Amino acid sequence: MNVDIGNALSAVAAPGISRAALERLDEQVADAHERIDAGMEAGEHGYAALNLPNRTDTDEIRVAVDRVTGPDTSAILTVGIGGSALGAATITDALNDADDPEAIYLDNVDPDWLSATLDRLDLETTVLNVVSRSGTTAETLANFLVVRETFEEAGVDWTERTIVTTGDDGPLRELAERHNLPSLAVPDGVPGRFSALSAVGLVAAAVCGHDLDALLRGAAAEAETLTGSLFECPAYAYGATTYALDARGARTNAMMPYAESLETYAEWFAQLWAESLGKDDLGQTPVRALGVTDQHSQLQLYRAGPRDKLVTFVTVQETAARPIPDTDVDDLAYLGDASLGDLLDAEFEATEASLAAAGRPNVRIEIDRVDEFELGGLLYGMEAACVLAGELYGVNTFEQPAVEWAKKATRGLLGGGEFAEAEAVAEKTELRVER
Amino acid sequence: MNVDIGNALSAVAAPGISRAALERLDEQVADAHERIDAGMEAGEHGYAALNLPNRTDTDEIRVAVDRVTGPDTSAILTVGIGGSALGAATITDALNDADDPEAIYLDNVDPDWLSATLDRLDLETTVLNVVSRSGTTAETLANFLVVRETFEEAGVDWTERTIVTTGDDGPLRELAERHNLPSLAVPDGVPGRFSALSAVGLVAAAVCGHDLDALLRGAAAEAETLTGSLFECPAYAYGATTYALDARGARTNAMMPYAESLETYAEWFAQLWAESLGKDDLGQTPVRALGVTDQHSQLQLYRAGPRDKLVTFVTVQETAARPIPDTDVDDLAYLGDASLGDLLDAEFEATEASLAAAGRPNVRIEIDRVDEFELGGLLYGMEAACVLAGELYGVNTFEQPAVEWAKKATRGLLGGGEFAEAEAVAEKTELRVER
Prior knowledge:
The first copy, chain A, is α/β, with parallel strands linked by helices and 435 residues long.
């Protein structure tokens, strides 16, 4: 990926960063890079994620996947939530076309939606992919139990079409061993939201026939750029700029890809950013947006609302040619000289310029096309940007302690033990206004 | 809908609002209500939207829809963007089940995605629904021209299956007259983002067989509650609370329904809030979230990040029973006593309480179930809340002037005339960091 931070400069935008401040920040980047480099070298928790391009064994993934797939495979149903779903979904939603097996993600416990999803699947040709590091994630295990029962009730042997990705022990590991299921490891030292380039993110892509090695090569090419200077490394340029803008008031970061196929990528980014940096009362709030659609929804706010936002565009250099037919309506004749891709490009450039003209900071991330290599680079680049930002904020990028309270309360509410958190739920302060 | 603002009180949360401040705010609400009531009475621009439950002619919509649908209708393809798509999409995504015609929205100009969408449709049984007030919206007209050509190339007569919703004049109105297409009016005085309860939002719902009258009845029941006090009107309680919290530092509003079928509703809300209130450097930034999924993505930030957020939950009182099968894994046995609906409910209550325990403000919106009546009430309630908030902010709720710059620049870039905005695009400040 390439990054253009020109529209984040104080010469253009407020909040913005001056070139002098960028030079000073680059010294902090050099220090942070030393820390990151040492963490990678030692395979430390979290930093280890940045080694995945050279560590993930794609042969092992393909061998496991080959045991449960065949030429008639129609769907890959992944049961997982958060980092166990979003990386994989980002990759298949970006790369799948109509001929590939459909990739579906059970990442919610809504009963109506689950039933509707299962009802429409041909279970005989569906591969089941269960992902949970601990093997005890409530949502994932509840969904898995329901899905397994559905297979059994349909007379379809789930043990012949299930692949498991989990930690070294726990209920899912035991299940895999008991039923001799193909299984893969959630890599040590890699938090879920940083695991897209491991088996966690790649099983579904493998089932759909995508080139895992090209994904890793794209990531490795990005890893090559990790140096001590934001001026030489697109990932660090992005991480440092967002940190500096947040400090100057851009508390919100709207991630706005100009490609429908990257809609899920924006969700993946939102998890990466929120869980990694949102702690100690710090952290920029990620907002998921989509070009051009959200020009007709969010642009008014981005351009004329509070000056507390950065908009990050992702733009794809090569798009398909799909000419817009001529029309005899005078007012629309200009469309007939263009393709849909031209219109998309013009809308992107116009929106970017409209924010700059209003002094609103924005950053452009460019990828050549939506393919394995470029996508691998984008995901790796954003992860490295996030790790850098975490160093600059001085937070513990790789933990997410604030979600534990609700997990305990949920378990207590369902009778899974005694938890003070569950008792606190009953003490809710009410001020009800009813129809 | 019912609203519970107990967790937004300063006794619970910071930022929070004291009961005394709420009492004072209620005087402003009374004044604002007078203004709103007078606007509704006079049918003034924007305020007129709140009259739709008593104004929309559902017979007219059904008659128009009957001309293009039949028992074999498999899909309804809506070509529109922003307010011309999101209201309709909210309704069909909430209410459709597997037996209904598929509702698809072409609300982007991505050529790969458009081609993939058209390729998989059975055009012979697809109804086309083109929506644009002006009849000149670039994205909508470009997509329409491509779709029309695709029908023609497939030898399918588009004039027999196209319905148009547009203003009194313009290219789409002329098209409808020339080809004698069934056509409906975008109602006067109703901005797109407030038009869900008019033909703009209801054509697709009618094609999918939903009860338009129940949608309007639900909205009318909510309209009945519009009084001069936030303590008596759920919509005003919500609008006033969000305004007061924004003033106290909750600059972001995360809309988090606990129902997969309401995911699009959160997008609709985000447009309503952003375009209506995002002006004059004011306006709360809407964020789209989804329970329980985003507990594993955004909750860390909401609970431990900056104290600049309100989380708005939408919870559905009745959910389907789908028991979780028993398991012999001790650590998971507690799940076997519950249904997926129980788990969903427990996760919602736990998440709400976890934010309160951390002193983070949140509001609960309750609907009984996801059906026409309740959904109509929810949409109307949020619109009324938004209009009230606009009065309290003192902004022009019903305009969106900041999007014009990019529209002119786009047109200029494509050779549709001379625009200074298009020339500004070329002057971009660059600071590129390349791989």
